[in-house]
Amino acid sequence: MESLLNINTFLSFLMSELDIKEESFLDPNSVLLELEYWDSLMVMTLLAVCDETYNIELDPDELDDCKTTEDIYKLVKKSVET
C-alpha cells in the first residue's frame, strides 16, 4: 500500500483518484467543509475508492467526523491496519 506511506503520498493519490484540481487539498490542515468541491458525491466517491484500493469499508459516520484531509488519512490508515 504505497499510497499510505505518508500523508503527502496519500493525498496526492486521492487527488488523482478523485480528480481534484485544487492544490489546497494537499495541505493536511485543509478543512474539508471549506473546500468548494467537498460534497456528498465526493464522499461517496471516496468511500468507493477506499473499498476498491484498500479493500476496506469506511464507516460513513466516521468519515463525516473528519474535519481535515489529515483526518481522512488517519481514518483510512487506521482502517487498513485493523
**Helix fraction by DSSP (H/I, runs of at least 4):** 40-55%
Number of helices in the DSSP assignment = 4
Task: Compute the CA-based radius of gyration.
Answer: 11 Å
The figure for the number of domains is: 1
Structural class: mainly alpha
* Largest sheet: number of strands, sense, barrel closure: none
Structural features, described:
By secondary structure, the protein is mostly helical. The chain has one domain: Non-ribosomal Peptide Synthetase Peptidyl Carrier Protein, Chain A (Orthogonal Bundle). The protein has four helices and no strands. The chain has helices at residues 7-17, 40-54, 60-65, 69-81.
Topology readout:
Elements: H1 7-17, H2 40-54, H3 60-65, H4 69-81
Short description:
The protein has 82 residues and is an all-alpha fold. It has 4 helices and no strands. The two termini are 14 Å apart.
Keywords:
Non-ribosomal Peptide Synthetase Peptidyl Carrier Protein, Chain A; mainly alpha; 82 residues; globular
